[in-house]
Amino acid sequence: MKDDGPEAIGIIAGGGEVPRRLIETLTRQGRRFFVIALEGHADPALVASTPHVTLRMGAVGAALEALRGAGVRDLVLAGSVRRPSLPELRPDWTATKLIAKMGPKMFAGGDDALLRAVVKVLEGEGFRVVRADSVLQGLLATPGVLGRHAPDSAAQADIDRAIAILRALGPLDVGQGAVVQQGICLGVEAVEGTDALLARVGPLRRDGLGGVLVKLRKPGQDERVDLPTIGVSTIEKAAASGLRGIAIDAGGAWLVDRPAVIEAADRLGLFVIGLEKTA
Q: Which domain holds residue 208?
């Protein structure tokens, strides 16, 4: 039965801190919301006491029915999701029809192509997909240095090099992050995500000044979903891998829990900077 109260905000939740912050903020504000917790991705403890349903990614029909039943119009897609293969997806009848309608392009290419297809499907069903930072004030990264530490000329040169690499790869829809040390690219983020990238580059670090992680949105990316994101865990993992700092896309990246990120960066001796112009 459809809820006749004020429209609820829908959250399609994967892993990570952004869904947690959304739920905490909406609860504190007393706003109605409903969560589609993606099975195997969203933390079950996070949604245990909230209005929600846990569904596999391929259960599109059940998800649409649940969202409509909860009176949802605006939807936020938030959190990390490991991209499934078609057999892992186990599409229901609704998903199967949508996949047939969208054709092979739905699974061809990188994450941007798939997410654009998902957004198109949701909008075609009458929902409006909105950015997480329209609900979470302070989530969007701002320009300039955050905290006590700033990049020196060597670190800035590594930032510039990483920007050039990401701008070259962006049209190929590969990833949002790169690690550069002393002008050498130690790694580029692909399907594994930022945490795995940082773990991978740790053993590759060279003697001398540490490297930098740069995270940028891709050219033409739908900025309502999957913006580059960092949080305290990113700072800690970057420090453990011997990096000197992190540069992110001001106005095009999410910074989860800004005060805690600044405290962690100051404590561990890393810089965090929002890049105002990266083109």
A: 144-275
List, for residues 105-115, the tens digit of each pLDDT value. Answer: 555 555 556 66
Q: How many angstroms separate the CA atoms of 259 and 255, rounded?
A: 10
- Is residue 250 within 8 Å of residue 11, measured between CB atoms? no
The confidence band for 227, taking pLDDT boundaries of 50, 70 and 90, is confident
For residue 176, give both structure tokens: 């949002």
Q: Give the span between the Cα atoms of 232 and 240, in whole angstroms.
A: 12
Q: Is residue 104 part of a domain?
A: yes
Query: 108 with 47, same domain?
Result: yes
- Structure confidence at residue 151 (pLDDT): 98
Band the pLDDT of 144: cuts 50, 70, 90: very high
Same domain, 111 and 168: no
The residue type found at 42 is: A
Residue 186: the pLDDT is 98
Please count the structural domains in the chain.
2
3-state secondary structure of 89: helix
Tell me if 254 sits within 8 A of 139, measured CB to CB: yes
Q: Calculate the CA 42 to chain-centre distance.
A: 13
H or E segment to which residue 201 belongs: helix 194-201
Write down which residue in 134, 162, 186 finishes a domain.
134
Identify the residue with better confidence: 114 or 271: 271
Q: Residue 55 contacts by C-beta under 8 Å, 6 or more apart in sequence?
A: 36, 37, 38, 39, 62, 63, 66
Within this chain, do residues 267 and 150 fall inside the same structural domain, yes or no? yes
Regarding whether 78 and 190 lie in a shared domain, the answer is no
For 57, which DSSP code?
Answer: T
